[in-house]
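Let's sit down with a protein and look at its sequence and fold side by side. Please make up or recall a protein chain and show it to me in full. Label the sequence line and the structure token line clearly, so we can match residues to local backbone shapes. Go ahead whenever you are ready, and we will take it from there.
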Amino acid sequence: MIHAWGVTDKGAIRTQNQDGYYLDIPSDHLAVGVVCDGMGGAKAGNIASLIAVETFVDTLQGMGPEEESGPPAVLSRAAEAANSAVFRRACSDPDCRGMGTTMVAVLIVEEVAYLLNIGDSRAYHINENGITRLTRDHSVVEDMVARGDITPEQARTHPRKNLITRALGAEERIRADLYEKQLEAGDYLLLCSDGLSNIVTDQEILYEVIHGGEAAECCQRLLDITLSRGAPDNVTAVLFQIV
């Protein structure tokens, strides 16, 4: 069985929330979730994330997550449709030129989580043994960490930490990364925008999920921590619990 909760907030400084998310649990053994963090100006970022989430979900529902092509292909096709929709709007509407959005999505089928990401929104696997980031950021500082130029700790405060190297809708075709993770009872999956992960550390996330209180209130607790620290960006979190 799968439970899920989500929260999004504009944060303490931004005047508009340009994040978007969706979650659904059609059956005990099937769930879908997506988080997008839009960019491209005060108006366009909001439009990019909205179009991406709606198109991704509509395409996914139209195909059905158990198509013969398999969950990874289904995720990819839904993301490609979302990319095309955002890209077309960016090309046709002068107010939206240059807009894009991150995307992290999960399709849970039976005991396997199939994940897709573009940009720096993240997916984490969490249980009593610890926390593991499942996705790799497409960002300047992540590339610097991979090369050994800076440490992960330095990346958290680096002046270029918000520069991403891939975005959905920025180009006609996308390059998304795909991952799979076997799940067991007691596991959690967290999807979040960088408004959360830039402010709350992995160990703090682990504590709140496992020890902080009721799972149903965890997303709100993480949001409250972010707000208490100034929340300079929009904040979105979606939590899945495997029971």
